[in-house]
Amino acid sequence: MAVEIVMPRMGLTMEEGTILSWHKREGEPVQAGEILLEIETDKVSAEIEAKASGVLGKILVEPGVSVPIGTPIATILEPGETQAATVTVEEAAAQPSQSSPGRSGFQPAAPGATAPGNSKDGGAKDTRPKASPAARRAARERNLELKSIQGHGPGGRILESDVKRAAQEKRQAQPRMTPVAARMAAEMEIDLSKIQGSGPRGLIQKSDLSAAAQESAGTAALSDQSELVTPSRARQIMAERMAQSFSSAPHFYLMVDANANTLVELRQALLPKVESKAGVRLTYTDLLAFFLAAALREHEMVNAAWAGGQIRLNRAVNLGIAVDTEGGLIVPVIHGAERLSLSEVAQRRAGLVETARAGKLGPDDLAAGTFTLSNLGGFRVDTFNAVLNPPQAAILAVGRIHEKVIPVAGQAVIQPIIGLSLTCDHRVIDGATGARFLDRLVELIEEPYTMFA
Amino acid sequence: MTDNPQLIEMYRKMLLIRRFEEAIFDLYRDGKMPGLAHLYAGEEAVAVGSCAALNPDDYITSTHRGHGHILAKGGQPDRMMAEVCGRVDGYCRGKGGEMHIADFTLGILGANGIVGGGLGIATGAAFTAKVRKTGQVSVGFFGEGGINQGIFYEELNMAAAWKLPVIYVCENNQYGEYTPWRKVTAGEDITERARAMGAAGVRVDGNDVLAVYQVTREAAERARQGEGPSLIECLTYRYTGHHVGEPGKGYRSDAEIEEWRRRDPIPRFEKYMLEKGIASGTDIEEIQENVAQEISEAVDFALNAPYPELSELTKHVYVE
Amino acid sequence: MTVETKTGVRELTFAQALREALHEEMQRDDRIFVIGEDVGAWGGVFRVTEGIYDKFGPERAVDTPISEEGFTGLAVGAAMTGLHPVVEIMFGDFITLAMEQIVNQAAKMRYMSGGQAEVPITVRATIGAGRSSGGQHSQSLHAWFAHIPGLKVVVPATPYDAKGLLKTALRDQNPVMFFEDKLMYAKVKGEVPEQEYTIPFGKADIKRPGKDVTIVALSRMVHAALAAAEKLAEEGIQAEVIDPRTLTPLDRDTLIQSVIKTQRAVIVDMGYHDFGATAELAATIMNGAFDYIDAPIERLGATQVPIPFSPPLEMSTIPDEEKIIAAVKRTLAGRGA
Question: Of A99, A155, B281, C156, whose CB neighbour count within 10 A is largest?
């Protein structure tokens, strides 16, 4: 009995996935539990195991193609079994269900994913749209799919007028604009969804486009000196989320240069201990994470999130550590950081970074973060302001430890300084709240023994 | 009567026809000509005798077994042979073929593939001659199979009623394809049919070229005098069957064929000419050589002539 | 008898127009003669050859026995030897008797002789049902002849067209089949100029311009189509009525261009529906205007039964104004939704 493989749902928010690669070829034997293929979704890549043993039948979706969850992507056949033609929805509905009881949840095939239904059994309907030659030409010219058009001719035939009406409706769903603006937008390929029309009733005018036009002109000039690259799925999602975060949450920044003298000494002293206990090299990130966890426990308002009109106060400190990988920025989470020892934090951090760099983070590694730490101290960056990692209400950006001349007890002294910037979502955190938190953090960094108090 | 050059010409023409048909037989058997061939061998005296009695501007229409008529009326062997071989230098540019050769300059209004198909045309030509008062006559050749086509009676009726200058020459070679004529033809004497409709009807030995000549002359005279049409029945025989390569001659007995061979018009006339001193043995040999040469050249011409180009296909459907 | 209308232009009947053409051409060209049953002394059963016998004599107005094959064959021979016969087939149904002479002889003679022969024969035959003449006297068989290479086929609808086209036929050196609807001889009148004119073959006539649907009609059906177009106009439907006038040669371009404009076509003819002239016209339009056609092409012809005698039955087989209107509405179905 053939077993259908569908695009699995890997996470709560996953709606579609991309096939990265098939680990088996058509006709190759497969053991249940063996890795059958790899997919990518949101920012995660995942290996999918075969759920049955047998022989891999026809691969329905090729690498690089994105399909919604539940879409059939392959079949595992019993040895010796031949692949039947895949059926259309109508055929499946017409036939009494002879396969596994779970068939009632049959999903319609994604376009291009299944072979055309055959009509041998007479139960299949011809689903090709009926349209006059004029209608077909009109649809071709307007790049409209016939199956999306309602036909009013005899027997539901699509007439030319139906196609024209559908095109008109499509046009009307698009933003209103002056003919000049329309031409400009088409010529310069401006994304109209980003443009706000300043004319009457939101009419988009030439002036509204000029900024976008300039940018477009600028990039147009670069076209033969530059290259257009399609970002990976992960980056696309990142881009959307960052833009969304930045525009929806009101960001404000609290900055301080903390004295890192003690921090440096502390790390030096703890290096061998952590090495022997956790088998990893202690980093400043680990120490900062440890102090953050402590501070956040005391300032729960900063360990929070704006939740559609309400504020979610998180009990655990799930600390996201921003990691730079080949595939881009990714933020694995140390869950329950407030309960971990420094060694444990270090260990976790090291493991997550390695997994992240290998591209093998799972959805659980990325889920449920409540606060993010972003450390660019490895570079010649003194301070920077980070963008909030939604839905988190705060993020700490850390620069490098560098020497500065500062007054100590009235004397000019050279001290190591570490630049900290706390970004806060003003919907959740106001200035004083954030300041109190930052103050405590700096206290921990400069006077770690206050932790015991 | 006829003078010697005319008689010698009759002999030459009969021989020409015979050799022409033999050459076609060879071409057919060697696979060098397309389609079928309907050979006239044995009937030469009919064509030659009757056409000798006509003027150059008189009309004839011929049949599917028409090479004899066309050669007798003056058709050129080389252009005929080329047409039989489907070449563009044939009389009809390869588009008519063996059964449809025509030379309008010689009054040959085409051989016809429909039995009796030339009778309407021949009668119409006579009509034109009458209204134009040209004194021309028109001869419609047909076989004894055609005597049972309705068209014959329709034409004969009008020709007789209107006194049209037309002569219907019926070549009774005893067989309509594979069926003996007596089996399917009513009445003892088909010339009766003409007389019944007020036209002259004459029967003649079709293998006696002079006899044929005589009766045709008389019929032509009648026609030119406005006395109307004649039917001339020529009794004759075809040696090579309905068409070349027909499956056997089982429908004809060897004895019958032998009998008619004895009456071959060509040796018969040869004998006559020698007896009457019209030609000597040497003359005859010379004629035979010339004819052989002419036919040989005609075959060469035909086989070396090109086939029509594809552009020929759509020409001559209409007068532009 | 001609009628002077107040505009000073003559109105002639269909038969009168044809007669005029014959007289004029016979005057011009002494090769022309008419031949057929009762065409001479009697002046023709439908009066089209009236006066020719008296004016031109019995040799140019030849009364024949009832021998359609015979006298058509004779006419072919006469045409091949320098005359121009005009054969009249009294009831077009009888043309079957002359098929051999028309199809195997006249049509092919020029081609088979490699261009030696010219066969300027004009065969006038009647078509059209509606007088309870029975199955063997009512047929419209013009489509058959458009199928045969070497023939030309003319189907005039109006006195103006009839005269102009017959004159062209009488000047054509090719075999021309000329079909006249017998019910139009006396009943259809139209303006015919006095000045000399001819109408070329292969040129369709847009009898009424329009933009919503193309109606292609032949012979008597042109009048039904025009009447239908009037009625449709009252409902705001502008029908374009096209008369091809000749089936061979056929003006395909005009038909195609029209349907490219209107996107819908109804084709009407009196021949039997199946495999009739409308089929070729529909295929022409389908091929030439494919991307513009917005509804299936409608074809109206005589019902596919032998033409019955009884009037209600016979009339039901003939396409008429109502049937044309219904067909037009079918092609427009759903368009304005």
Answer: C156
Q: Do chains C and B touch (3 or more CB pairs under 8 A)?
A: yes
Q: What is the CATH classification number for the domain harbouring C279? A: 3.40.50.920
Boundaries of every domain in chain A: 3-105, 133-222, 236-452
Is C68 in the active site?
Answer: yes
C146 touches chain B (CB under 8 A): no
Query: CATH number of the domain at A236-452, out of 3.30.559.10, 3.40.190.170, 3.10.450.50, 3.40.50.720?
Result: 3.30.559.10
Q: A124-133 burial, b for 16+ CB within 10 Å, e for fewer?
A: beeeebebbb
Give the mean pLDDT of A7-30.
81
Q: Which two tokens stand for residue A369?
A: 């973060």
β-bridge pairing B179-180 and C152-154? unpaired
- Catalytic site residues of A? 426, 430
Distance of CA C51 to the CA centre of its chain: 24
Tell me what pLDDT residue C4 has: 54
Residue with tokens 């009995």: A1
> Which B residues 106-125 touch C at CB under 8 Å?
109-110, 112-114, 117, 119-125
Interface test with A, best of C294, C331, C332 (most A CBs within 10 A): C294
Q: What pLDDT digit, counting tens, does each position of A249-269 carry? A: 999 999 999 999 999 999 999
pLDDT on residue C5: 54
Fold of domain A3-105:
OB fold (Dihydrolipoamide Acetyltransferase, E2P) (2.40.50)
Most distant pair of Cα atoms in chain C: their distance:
67
CB contact under 8 A, C335 and A153: yes
Cα A60-A63-A68 angle, rounded to 5 deg: 65
pLDDT of res. A83:
67
CA distance C165 to chain B (A): 17
Low-confidence ranges of chain C (pLDDT < 70): 1-8, 336-337
Torsion over CA: A228, A232, A233, A235 (sign): negative
Nearest CA in chain B to C59: B131
User: Is C334–A134 a contact, with Cβ atoms under 8 angstroms apart?
Assistant: no
pLDDT in tens, A181-196: 878 777 777 777 677 7
**B164 touches B130 (CB < 8 A):** yes
| Chain C partners within 8 Å of A151 (Cβ) | 334
C-alpha distances in angstroms, A110 versus A58, A116, A127?
16, 12, 15
